[in-house]
Amino acid sequence: MDKVIDHFVSMAVISSPSYKEAQVSAYIQAQLAKYGIEFYQDNAHLEYQDEGAQCGNLIALLPGTLSGTVALSAHMDTVTPCENITIVEEGDWIKTDGKSVLGGDDKAGIAVILDALIALASGSVPHPTVVAIFTIGEEVGLKGAKVLDFARLPSIDLAYVIDAGGEIGTAYISAPYSAKGVVTITGQAGHASEPEMGCNAMVAGAQLITQLPIGRVDEETTSNIGIIHGGNATNIIMESVDITFEVRSRLQEKVQAFIDNVSQQLATLQSSMPISYENRIAQGTPGFRLDPSSELLSTFASCCTQQGLEVQFNDGMGGSDANIFNKNGIPCLDISVGMKHIHSVNECIKKSDIITCRDLIMALLSRPLRPQ
Ligand SMILES: [Zn+2]
Questions:
Q1: Could you give the CA distance from residue 7 to residue 109 in angstroms, rounded to a whole number?
Q2: Beta bridge partners of 96
Q3: Alpha carbon of 140 to ligand 1 centroid (Å)
Q4: How far is CA 199 from the centre of its chain?
Q5: Residues 48/137, Cβ–Cβ less than 8 Å
Q6: Could you tell me the distance, in angstroms and rounded to a whole number, from the CA of residue 77 to the centre of ligand 1?
Q7: Burial of 227: CB neighbours in 10 Å, binned 0-12, 13-18, 19+
Q8: What is the pLDDT of residue 372?
Q9: Which residues are CB-neighbours of 77 under 8 A, at least 6 positions away?
Q10: What is the distance in A from the centroid of ligand 1 to the CA of 164?
């Protein structure tokens, strides 16, 4: 069996929910040490002590023989359920017994990076300097990447996060800006039999909602109300209600416009009802859009063609560690390793896709970067 599949299966059986990545990290470290690849763990876990983080991000460094530095990244945590993972192989497919996720998201990405590093470290193929970054807590909000100490890393020219699905050759060239948070509206509690004495927070909340565009805002903007909490008893006028919003858009201004609209509508409501309010909707990780004429996209496209793969550049609708690299000025694509039905117990992946992705990464690392 191809070594990359061995690495994948060895890591897939390890349970590693967010902040509990130590065992996966130990596996990677053992492999790096075996092949004499330099690595260190950062102190990301110290930032997440309250969450019980076990270990920091793991960073491996392979000095190059060609110009430039390329970063490869994948995350070590998985979503749940991820206890007692039983791997089932059916021909080319790898899946589980249906009782847990497979964790191909993102251990398939880790396996590809690890196998490529080992091949470069033990071979004689010229390559740029490679920085491999294995992050913690990606699934709970890009937590490891957010506290990555970029100053401690060598200067990185471009990066590939291997954390997407689709045919191999698929890459995400953008991610939306987003915001989320709770709006609390407080009215006045009272007995339900004396409505004149109270002010129902939910009535104010309902009026707020009808004044806002919820769902499809425009072609590049969506909004949602995901959670509503309020009330204590049927005979008490609801004193306060928490309404949780999210909004995402290709344009940061449109995200801000939604947040401002919520505040304006709340102020208008306050002029006609005895309420107070707090708007805690806040912008999250910045989105990005890569330049179509950039070296990153042209290199990826030509390598795919060279490998006989069809290149497909897509716009993403969610976040990944690629947001953080781009935010820090490092052009970064999120590329597919072929993961399917992620975040479900039906998750599966083809061995041939993992191998093809590894070969694509090797091709990407076999060329010098144009001097910046
Ligand atoms: Zn992922």
A1: 11
A2: 87
A3: 10
A4: 41
A5: yes
A6: 8
A7: exposed
A8: 44
A9: 16, 17, 18, 19, 20, 21, 136, 137, 138, 139, 140
A10: 7
Q: How far is ligand 1, taken at its centre, from the CA of residue 139, in Å?
A: 7
Task: Give the span between the Cα atoms of 177 and 347, in whole angstroms.
Answer: 27
Q: Measure 52 CA to ligand 1 centroid, in angstroms.
A: 20
Q: Report the separation in Å between the CA atom of 143 and the middle of ligand 1, taken as the mean of its atom positions.
A: 13
Ligand 1 centre and the CA of 293: distance in Å? 27
Q: Which residue type does 115 have?
A: D
The pLDDT value recorded for residue 273 is 96
Task: Provide the CA 239 distance to its chain's centre, in angstroms.
Answer: 37
Which of 176-202 are b and which e, b meaning 16 or more Cβ less than 10 Å from the residue's Cβ?
A: bbbbbbbbbbbbbbbeeeeeeebbbbb
Distance 352 CA to ligand 1 centre (A): 19
Q: How far is the CA of 229 from the centre of ligand 1 (A)?
A: 30
Residue with tokens 């070594």: 3
Closest CA to 365 of 299, 282, 313: 299
Is 350 within 8 Å of 337 (Cβ atoms)? no
Tokens of 248: 């995402």
What residues of the chain score a pLDDT lower than 70?
370-372
Asked if 295 and 158 touch (Cβ cutoff 8 Å), the reply is yes
CA 69 to centroid of ligand 1, rounded, Å: 23
- pTM for the model stands at 0.88
* pLDDT at residue 368 in the model: 80
